[in-house]
Design brief:
By secondary structure, the protein is of the alpha/beta class. The protein is 49% helix and 8% strand.
Length: 534
């Protein structure tokens, strides 16, 4: 920021704005210096500064704006019900007195039910028949369903459930298995975790495709993810019925569009792709080259890149980058060509890469920006408090509107939005923030057009916590298979929880374990659940 030519000639308002700006820069510099000191201490081998959160409570806007029950009608807990009715008795033991008292009469038994867990190794020798045919070939009977390798389906289910749902570590899992009497090596445990189970990955991909094709809305988020000692990013996509995780090196819009293809590899130049390119200000002559060429479908990235080079687009050095915008458009065309995101609203935290198609913004993140502003005077704090109170009230009104939308309420809420976000408070950083939020009016008020969408991305933040926990517990992944297996099983576990399916039962069903509950394909359950009235 260049210094003013003559500070003595500044007006009172300009001087006040300058002071606010300097105070903000000082606060930011203090945070930077603290972070650098912490990093320097770590590099020298010390523990660094402890990660103590600032004494600032979260906004709590979502919980605070929930409707309150009438006075005297608080939440009543229902009775849990008899436990015994839910149990099947596997064993009955008779317990006798050592020496009955003299003269006592036997009066039968009283029942006392105990739930127990039996865990012990169970070694099975499978003697497979061998037959020799007339032509000299030897035929061996295949292993029964569910058996694959030298470790049975129940053991594989236990390993996967404990690692992915129980969030344990591989060394601890190895120690536990050995303590239980299982003769197994570290490499064998890793193979059980990263086994070439294409059916699981196929089902996770089908879950994503079904969710994107059938949902009226999705929420998205991302978080850091280490892979092969490099920083990457895990993108979460989901709603009330499904969850998907995809880890890549980048979190750009190009990557997000690639993720939205849900496993398809093609590039398509269709009307949706061309409309995307126009929206992103791609040069008209470049769009014309793509639109006039008879070839519109490309099987993979190599074929698409060759097409761009053939048309001379790859050689253009202009802004915006024609290769980037054209590729994003072809990816968007592929998404639409496969019937994904048909009228689906993408609700995000305002990260730029998620601003695609019909887009809505999270109100909790918007309010958080106001909540996190540094205030230096009583006037600042009063302006911040009044603005937050107004946003909380508007948020509560929007929640009521979702249940009973009407044109009159829509107009009233739009007017209230304009009143709040065009107010001049005199707190310069706040006024700038309000102007920026007002520019996002259509996305923040998307709920007025689509009342079924959520007002926040809390679901995504809740989903992605399991991925963050996995990262904190185990660090990063080393192999492509390990990365894909981690994303696959965490997503399947989350999807099972949303559909009311036990992940343990799901694994038992997929491993064909005798006596396990039959769990239909998860995409089928997603469609059935989504079709039910809310």
């Amino acid at each position: 920021m260049p210094p003013p030519e003559d500070i003595d000639r500044l007006s009172s308002a300009a001087l006040k704005a300058l002071v606010y700006e300097l105070l903000q820069k000082v606060a930011e510099l203090e945070r930077t210096v603290a972070a650098l000191r912490d990093e320097n201490a770590r590099l020298k081998g010390g523990p660094g500064r402890p990660d103590i959160k600032p004494n600032r409570k979260p906004s709590g806007m979502e919980q605070a704006t929930d409707p309150k029950p009438p006075a005297g009608l608080g939440r009543k807990r229902g009775r849990r019900g008899a436990t015994r009715a839910k149990l099947a008795i596997n064993e009955t033991r008779k317990v006798k007195l050592t020496v009955p008292p003299s003269g006592a009469r036997f009066k039968g038994y009283t029942s006392f039910v105990v739930q127990e867990l039996v865990i012990h190794p169970h070694v099975v020798e499978l003697q497979c028949e061998r037959w020799q045919t007339a032509d000299g070939r030897v035929i061996t009977a295949p292993l029964p369903d569910g058996f694959d390798g030298h470790f049975g389906p129940q053991l594989r289910r236990f390993v996967l459930a404990l690692y992915h749902q129980g969030q344990t570590t591989m060394p601890r899992l190895l120690t536990l298995l050995r303590a239980l009497g299982i003769v197994i090596s570290k490499r064998q445990v890793v193979r059980l975790l990263n086994a070439e189970r294409g059916d699981f990955r196929d089902e996770a991909r089908a879950v994503l495709r079904t969710g994107l094709a059938s949902s009226s809305w999705i929420t998205v988020d991302d978080t850091g993810a280490r892979h092969q000692a490099k920083n990457g990013f895990c993108t979460q996509i989901g709603n009330a019925h499904f969850t998907a995780f995809i880890t890549r090196e980048s979190k750009s819009r190009l990557n997000f569009l690639s993720v939205l293809r849900a496993g398809y590899d093609d590039y398509v130049v269709n009307n949706e792709a061309l409309a995307y390119m126009r929206e992103r200000a791609l040069a008209a002559h470049v769009i014309a080259r793509l639109a006039e060429h008879p070839e519109r479908l490309f099987a993979d990235q190599a074929a698409w890149t060759a097409h761009l080079e053939k048309l001379g687009i790859a050689a253009l050095k202009v802004t915006p980058d024609p290769v980037l915008i054209a590729t994003e458009g072809a990816l968007w065309g592929s998404v639409k060509a496969h019937g994904l995101l048909r009228g689906t609203v993408i609700v995000s935290d305002d990260a730029g890469q998620f601003n695609i198609g019909e887009h809505g913004l999270c109100w909790v993140h918007a309010e958080r920006l106001v909540h996190k502003l540094d205030t230096f005077t009583e006037q600042n704090r009063a302006a911040q408090a009044s603005t937050r109170a107004a946003m909380w009230q508007l948020y509560a009104d929007l929640k009521v509107y979702r249940g009973a939308p009407s044109p009159e309420r829509k107009n009233a809420l739009t007017a209230e939005f304009d009143r709040i976000f065009t107010t001049t408070t005199g707190f310069v950083p706040l006024d700038r923030l309000l102007a920026r939020l007002h520019a996002n009016k259509s996305e923040l008020l998307k709920v007025l057009e689509r009342p079924e969408i959520p007002l926040h991305t809390n679901g995504s933040e809740n989903d992605i916590r399991c991925h963050v926990t996995r990262r904190k517990v185990s660090g990063g992944t080393r192999s492509e298979r390990g990365r894909d297996c981690r994303d696959t099983f965490l997503a399947l576990a989350k999807t099972c929880a949303k559909l009311g399916v036990s992940f343990w039962d799901y694994l038992g069903s997929r491993f064909a374990i005798t006596g396990s509950a039959i769990v239909p394909p998860l995409p089928q359950l997603i469609l059935a659940t989504a079709a039910q009235p809310p």
